[in-house]
Amino acid sequence: MKIVLAEKVSPATLAVFKTEADWQILTHDQITNLPESLADADGLVVRSAVQVDDALLASAPKLRVIGRAGVGVDNIDADAATRRGIVVMNTPGANAVAVAELTIALMLSLGRMLPKANATMHAGKWEKKSLQGTELRGKKFGILGLGRIGLEVARRARAFGMELIGHDPFVSAAVARENAIRLVTAEELFRESDYLTLHVGFTPQTTGIINEKTIATMKKGVRIINCARGELIIEEALAEALKSGHIAGAALDVFHQEPPKNSPFFGLENVILTPHIAGSTAEAQEAVGVQIALQVREYLKLGVVQNAVNLPSLSHEEYLEVAPYIEMAGRLGTFLAQFPESGIESIELSYSGRVAEGKTELIRNSAIAGILGHSESVNRINAAAIAAERGIRIHEEKKEATNGGAGSVLKLTLHTPHSDFTASASVLHGVSARLLSLDGIDIEAPLQGALLTIHNRDVPGVIGRVGTILGDHQVNIANFALGRSDSSRRVPQGNALAVVQIDGAITDAALEELRGVDAILQVHLVNLNGGK
């Protein structure tokens, strides 16, 4: 085996590979021409600097695995790797402790005004009276996102005697109880928290989740910590709240633009700014290097796949056949995930038709990844493992086609403590993902772009009101699909459903006006892959 370490790694990382006496290891300082070095390589290890694009992969005909020592894989063309049968692995969770520890450190620094205390002392001042802080004991600590990092933060915060509340629709009540976390809605989390920390991924649903509207619902004096993604916060709204004193303080490790330029936070004394260092500890960097080395070694020796971010287990022919259903399943999962308001206890998948005859593991994982898409580091390979970590049970069944229509159908059901949510979909003409039903109502609609789902009473005038409101707000309708319940369904007779595909964005004002229509029961908005 030949392994190319294209970027600098720790001695411990190199030592993992050197346990294989007959392996050739090429380190970054021995490389003069990377494409030439990859010509006969079996494995490639990178960090974030080397761009692994299709052109580079074309020079690596024997390459079987790419290991990314870190979480993000923006520098790797995973689709190109998949087409070439190359596994792409990363190391999610290896820096969870480092991020959790910085979160706690920033929270303590906010409460005790440590940056100001340090600065005044270095300036030769003794400003004891102006530095009276607050204790963490007894404060409500809100955690948005209860993945690996969120739970690590919770475990440490318990030691300070804090009351833990959390929001994550995709973590089970059992996992929350084990960590002494009281699950609440997002609205309750924002309203009740004395300290609020963010640990969710960057998705259309979480973008700008801290904004003028949500800030207005928060307690006066709340303190916010963000070590996740800068895009979670509308920076101007947070800056204004900090200036007004509605938010007492913020500690930010991530930003919209990195490094930030002309940031609204510059010069604000009640803001702690750090340069994206949450995962930058010697131990974390060592851990990600050793972890990726172990993963690459295990795959090349034993075929064991860990933390893969693409689709490694299908032949090229199998991949071509199942790929449209993998994509459809992810979109269906993302679509259905908009409805539950309480924790998901189990996910049920039912396959019928030709798709049930083949390998469905990646279809299953794609659906789960769509459902859990707001969480950090969830992908089509590790989705089932992440669901298990969160206490979510997975049930699958395969059966012959009985619908007489679409040849292959996936039915997806989310079970929560209070209700179930079910939808089915198929792929038409090998390329078009189509919704077939939602909660017992037959409806055919495209699973792409921005979709409004509108539940309403089946009375005259609703369609016209929807069209008028969207038109008044300059929202163009690309597709308008309708369905209605009947007595043979579990949905109450007299209800109807519309799935409206729209072009471009829609404002909160337009959504609120739709929700204000007397006959409309629910309105949800979901964006599927930016319309791709």
TrEMBL record:
Molecular function terms, GO-annotated: NAD binding; phosphoglycerate dehydrogenase activity
EC number(s) on file: 1.1.1.95
Domain of life, per lineage: Bacteria
Associated pathway: Amino-acid biosynthesis; L-serine biosynthesis; L-serine from 3-phospho-D-glycerate: step 1/3
UniProt entry tagged with the keyword DNA-binding: no
InterPro entries in UniProt: ACT-like_dom_sf, ACT_dom, ASB_dom_sf, D-isomer_2_OHA_DH_cat_dom, D-isomer_DH_NAD-bd, NAD(P)-bd_dom_sf, PGDH, PGDH_ASB_dom
GO biological process: L-serine biosynthetic process
Domain ACT: 451-528
Reaction(s) this enzyme catalyzes, per UniProt: (2R)-3-phosphoglycerate + NAD(+) = 3-phosphooxypyruvate + NADH + H(+); (R)-2-hydroxyglutarate + NAD(+) = 2-oxoglutarate + NADH + H(+)
Enzyme class name: oxidoreductase
Keywords: Amino-acid biosynthesis, NAD, Oxidoreductase, Serine biosynthesis
PROSITE patterns, alphabetized: ACT
NCBIfam families per UniProt: PGDH
Role played: Catalyzes the reversible oxidation of 3-phospho-D-glycerate to 3-phosphonooxypyruvate, the first step of the phosphorylated L-serine biosynthesis pathway. Also catalyzes the reversible oxidation of 2-hydroxyglutarate to 2-oxoglutarate.
Protein family: Belongs to the D-isomer specific 2-hydroxyacid dehydrogenase family.
Stated name of the protein: D-3-phosphoglycerate dehydrogenase
Species of the source: Alloacidobacterium dinghuense
